[in-house]
Design brief:
single chain; 376 residues; alpha+beta; ten-stranded antiparallel sheet; 3 helices; 16 strands; elongated
């Protein structure tokens, strides 16, 4: 009689503890490797994406900076802003009788302001300010909002002596009921409620005050530099109505720069003024005009922006900082009090280490360079 042999099938016998342990270790190692691999891939993709975004932001932000600096002509010899060597950044020596080739590379003529990421978490760098033509008024290189004004326009010259009334007093006989705030009378007019406007002469005068009040340590040149007569004011009006006044108001008498910069509004024009005169109102601008025979006596008004650049450090989890841009807005608040504040601040370029503004004071030009924080 045969006894049936019960053989063991290798495929049905199950796994030993050691086999299961080895398999678990191999599986865990593979999964861990895969997780780390895909985490690194994801990090690389994220880093590449952020670097691309930074590059795109750099191109877009650079275009705005270039436009601002190109339009910043009103800053020269009017806005006092000390550079990193405690010399005025915006001094412009338009004529130098003894200029030689070495002057153009002489360190005494160079100016530099560097904004760097502060070490304080979410802190701010020093500020860089600029007076720039409002680029919204530019069209194909033509500035429709630059309105010429005859020096006698704001006066009632029928009176004896002539009485000052204001740039936009349409009751004056010479104005023929024309209103600067009316686009039908003045196309592209800058006379808009709360707008910042600059009045300037078309010619520059030899002035003795700018260097003495802003940068008295400048190299030994004549203390006279050529400056147009200028005044910056606000198109004022009732905050509760659309009423606009006929005169520009000097809101900028407020400390808008937090002691980091100032307007040099005092003038002592050579061979014309015995004493220094403060041009701190629209009327003082016109009352103190110097009209030279045979020279352009025209003045003009134009809409401007007063800009602030600064860098804010990122939080502790991120390197670098954000280049911020804002502009000054002046208005009357609900209690009819004058206010000027830098508002609508936005990120111009992210992941930035520094931006450096440089120039040579023999030229009315501003250069800049940017250092970016690369994302690893």
């Amino acid at each position: 009689m045969y006894r049936k042999y019960q053989g063991v099938n290798a495929f049905n016998r199950g796994f030993t503890t050691i086999e299961m342990l080895i398999t678990s270790i191999i599986t865990a190692t593979t999964i861990l490797f895969a997780v780390n691999y895909f985490k690194q891939i994801n990090k690389n993709v994220q880093s590449t994406t952020e670097n691309i975004q930074t590059t795109i932001g750099l191109f877009g932000g650079s275009k705005i900076i270039q436009d601002d600096l190109f339009n910043g002509v009103y800053s020269f010899n009017f806005l006092c802003l000390l550079d990193d060597s405690n010399k005025d950044f915006f001094t412009y020596i338009s004529e130098r009788q003894s200029a030689v080739a070495s002057d153009y590379t002489d360190p005494a003529f160079k100016r530099s302001i560097k904004l760097s990421v502060p070490t304080i978490n979410k802190g701010y760098s020093r500020d860089f300010y600029l007076i720039a033509i409002d680029s919204s008024t530019l069209a194909a290189g033509y500035r429709p909002a630059k309105i010429p004004i005859d020096p006698y326009w704001p006066y009632n010259d029928k009176a004896v002596p002539p009485v000052y009334k204001g740039i936009n007093d349409k009751t004056l006989p010479s104005h023929n009921n024309k209103d600067l705030s009316n686009t039908n009378d003045f196309q592209g007019t800058p006379w808009i409620k709360n707008a910042l406007l600059i009045i300037s002469t078309a010619i520059a005068y030899h002035d003795e005050t700018f260097l003495s009040e802003c940068d008295s340590t400048t190299f030994s040149v004549s203390k006279q530099i050529k400056r147009p007569l200028r005044f910056i004011g606000v198109v004022d009006g009732d905050p509760s109505t659309t009423t606009i006044l006929s005169n520009l108001n000097n809101f900028l008498g407020l400390n808008v720069f937090s002691n980091q910069a100032k307007f040099i509004t005092n003038y002592k024009i050579a061979d014309a003024y015995t004493n220094s005169v403060s041009i701190d109102s629209e009327q003082k601008f016109y009352d103190n005009l110097v009209v030279d025979i045979g020279r352009n006596r025209e003045t003009f008004i134009e809409k401007i922006n007063i800009l602030r650049y600064r860098i804010q450090a990122n939080d502790s989890k991120e390197k670098g900082g954000k280049l911020l841009r804002s502009k000054l807005e002046c208005y009357r608040n609900s209690t009819n009090q004058e206010e000027c504040n830098f508002r609508l601040e936005y990120i111009l370029i992210d992941n930035i280490r520094s931006i450096t503004f440089t120039r040579n004071i023999l030229f009315p030009l501003i250069n800049y360079s940017i250092e970016i924080e690369k994302v690893n």
